[in-house]
Amino acid sequence: MFIDMHMHEKTFSSDSFLSLEEMVYEARIKGLDGICITDHDSMGLVETAAAYTERTGYPIFVGIEFYSLQGDILAFGIDSYPKERVSAQEFIDFVNAQGGITISAHPFRNNRRGLEDNLDKVKGLSAIEVLNGSTLPDAINTAKEYAKKLGLPATGASDCHVTDKVGVYATYFPDEIRSSGDLVRAVKAGRCSPAYYKEGSYHIYDLLS
């Protein structure tokens, strides 16, 4: 399965121009098997997404992009989150205590919102987002090297806020992912790989190159 794991919907991400219906429409055109809504410091779309999946059968998973004191972190498999900014380590510990997963979002993007070399300091991170649709190649390469150095799974995602970005990158799962629990278990087991969209289909990104 190919799933875009980092997307922003306009209801709770004020910098997004995408409605849920538009996201799903574009995702299906590209051949994505599911999408993840990770709005900024919000999980407000949980009930809407669940109802949409129930009605259409298309998997939509809701996580969060939390702005920790050291940078952005994606989280899935949680029911609550801190209502104020806390340290990256405190947030990771908070998510792990709920049995969820944390993914370092765009760790080396040039907007200073990634964890950067704090990746060497935090403990308990589940994965690193290597491919990100709004990140330059040099930063992607650095993220790839950190994933290899730290022995962490790598993911890919569009980080889309507009239509053209939907699904430019995604994450490949060899297993069926039908629930948030499936997603969490797959990432924890390292059964995921970043992927990119090119010439009408998805291709696994080579982490060894």
Layout of secondary structure:
Elements: E1 2-7, H1 20-30, E2 34-37, H2 46-56, E3 60-62, E4 64-68, E5 71-76, H3 88-97, E6 101-104, E7 127-132, H4 137-150, E8 154-157, E9 169-172, H5 180-188, E10 193-198, E11 201-204
Parallel strand pairs: 1-2, 2-3, 6-7, 7-8
Antiparallel strand pairs: 1-9, 4-5, 5-6, 9-10, 10-11
CATH class: Alpha Beta
CATH architecture type: Alpha-Beta Barrel
Class by alpha and beta content: alpha/beta
Task: Determine the CATH topology.
Answer: TIM Barrel
* Proportion of residues in extended strands: 15-25%
Q: Tell me the helix content.
A: 25-40%
Rg estimate, integer Å: 15 Å
Count of folded domains: 1
The residue ranges in which pLDDT falls below 50 over 5 or more consecutive positions are: none
The first-to-last residue Cα distance is 23 Å
| Beta strand count | 11
CATH-defined superfamily: Metal-dependent hydrolases
Largest sheet: 6 strands, mixed
Which term fits the overall shape?
A: globular
Total helix count?
Answer: 5
